[in-house]
Write a structure and sequence with these properties.
Structural class: alpha+beta
Order of helices and strands: EEEHEEHHEEEEEHEHHH
Strand order of the largest sheet: 1-2-3-4
Oligomer: single chain
Distance between the termini: 18 Å
CATH architecture: Orthogonal Bundle
Number of strands: 11
CATH superfamily: Transferase(Phosphotransferase) domain 1
Shape: globular
Length: about 250
């Protein structure tokens, strides 16, 4: 697959380097580092380095997530060297609002990755634009929520339920976190809870500052009027549905 931006934007996240500069970390978590390098011709590239998970940190979730990212990265470039690498948060700050076409590409690439996770019974608990990175100006990739255990991935059962140990729950109280997670009084919740994050991210991508705050369901729904009756309109409505079990990730 190939998803080109309509804006041609390319951000250089991280400090600029002089000719022959040493590699600098652009992104780093438990399972992958992305390093920026400037060569003698001032050409900038980004190299992904997957870390060997230490025995003390090793668990099935992290290893499985690392394997998913390896597949995605290597499908973009087998050598895992990229022309650009920046966060969705940085992209939104630069351009304020995204086009309908860019959001369509975001949904397709993120859904593709989440389908890969679903095959191994994993889903994302909660995330924000900080956790989505854009590679080669084409691919949106969730690289983990560093603020949560297991980078924000959890396992779901045959009933599509996830179990959350309350004492370890350390979710940020921001606009992208599902309200059920902020007021949770049970350990078991439907896996669809994460789709709220998707819907809210899309609202911010489309409408910028007007959507970058906590809003009621009705206000979020009304904000979608400029794209009413489109594929994205119905997709977002499903993602932010007040009924968590109806919060399906369906893009048709």
């Amino acid at each position: 697959m190939s998803y080109d931006y309509d804006g041609g934007y390319s951000a250089d996240v991280g400090e600029g380097g002089s000719a022959g500069a040493k590699k600098k970390n652009v992104f780093k978590n438990l399972i992958v580092d992305v390093l920026k390098k400037t060569d003698k011709k001032n050409s900038i590239s980004y190299q992904a380095k997957f870390t060997k998970i230490k025995e003390a940190e090793a668990n099935t979730t992290l290893i499985m997530f690392q394997n998913v990212l390896k597949k995605i990265f290597s499908s973009i470039n087998p050598d895992m060297i990229f022309n650009s690498f920046y966060s969705l948060e940085e992209y939104i700050k630069k351009i304020d609002v995204c086009s309908y076409n860019t959001v369509d590409k975001f949904i397709n690439t993120i859904d593709f990755q989440f389908d890969m996770l679903s095959v191994i019974n994993k889903c994302v608990l909660s995330f924000s634009p900080k956790d989505i990175w854009i590679i080669n100006d084409k691919f949106f990739v969730f690289i983990g929520n560093n603020r949560l255990d297991n980078l924000g991935l959890v396992e779901f059962d045959k009933k599509n339920h996830i179990t959350i140990p309350l004492l370890r729950l350390n979710l940020p109280n921001n606009i992208f976190t599902a309200p059920e997670l902020l007021s949770i009084d049970e350990e078991v919740i439907h896996r669809n809870v994460c789709n709220f994050s998707l819907g809210k991210i899309i609202l911010v991508m489309l409408f910028g500052k007007s959507a970058d705050k906590k809003l009621t369901y009705e206000k979020m729904k009304n904000s979608l009027n400029p794209i009413i009756n489109t594929k994205i309109y119905y997709y977002v409505l499903r993602c932010i549905d007040p009924d968590i079990e109806m919060r399906t990730n369906l893009y048709v």
